[in-house]
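Usage

Read records sequentially. Each one opens with the input sequence:
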Amino acid sequence: MFQFNRAGADDKPLRMVKTVLHELVKLRGAAIKGHLSMVPIDTKPQPIILAYIELNLEVGIKFFWGALYTCVDIYSYT
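and closes with the structure output:
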């Protein structure tokens, strides 16, 4: 049996955290920022979790508006 081994097999914990964070942002949207009371947001450099949250929010907004415009385009031609 062939076993596929990723080059970055050690990144599984980070991938899992990013996936959980993605799902939380998808469920809560921008309100997720209200749940960061234990994350030190005024430190330099900022914790990487904040960058992941912002990235997920940006991608989610682009996906939402892209899907909305697609629906509008579909219904405007019928």
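Summary fields computed downstream for this record:
- Residues 48-76 form the longest helix (29 residues).
- Residues 13-76 form one domain.
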